[in-house]
Input
Amino acid sequence: MLLDIDGVLHVGDEPIAGAIGALERCRELTAGVRLITNTTSRPRAAIVGRLRGMGFTVGDEEVVTPAATAVSVCRERGLRRVLMLVPEELRADLAGLREAEDGEQPDAVVLGDLGDGFTPDALNGAFRALLGGAELIALQRNRYWRSSAGLVMDVGAWSAALEYAAGVEATVAGKPSPALFLAALAEIPGDGRALMVGDDIEGDIGGALDAGLEAVLVRTGKYRPGAAAAAGVEPTATIDSIAELPPLLTRR
Ligand SMILES: [Mg+2]
Output
């Protein structure tokens, strides 16, 4: 079972009613649980720490992020030397990869949110690596986000610029791309049915269905009535909150 975190387990700093017990019950009822999130602004340790602070029991290995997925993708494809355009605090999550040294042609460019670090020098370094044959792996594909100074371009926009300039197509590590779902599932033993639970009709539900999973939409977090119909996505089931998930599983 794969569970989205924000909007499914908690909203803000508050756990959703019944979520702490439901998560533990889901572990008992399945071959394994992974919590998957598109967060690229903080490292996995911080995500785990925040959940524990709210009262959830969570193993470090249970949280799968786009950075962890980028590591899996690089390993799978034999991409050994990596140019990392990611903020300093995210480097811990990419420790499984070897950074390309100066003058060395990278096998991959991993693109995260560098913020003010997106300088012409940094972008041209990535551009030349791509021209030299490196694969582009973007941690997510958001167009922009709201900083304290106003709206700013996000990773998706910089990724699109690099794709256009170098004539390549990025692999996206975050949802709704299948990469995150498949990397998380690969860590769970067995080959039975796989279920994704989320509050985002496109990122969670549409992405999971495209990756071949069943997908349960919760009416918490960013859920809006009518969003499923508007997106043309039909969840396998819709429930009021994660608290209803264990009874749903035992009925199936
Ligand atoms: Mg969510």
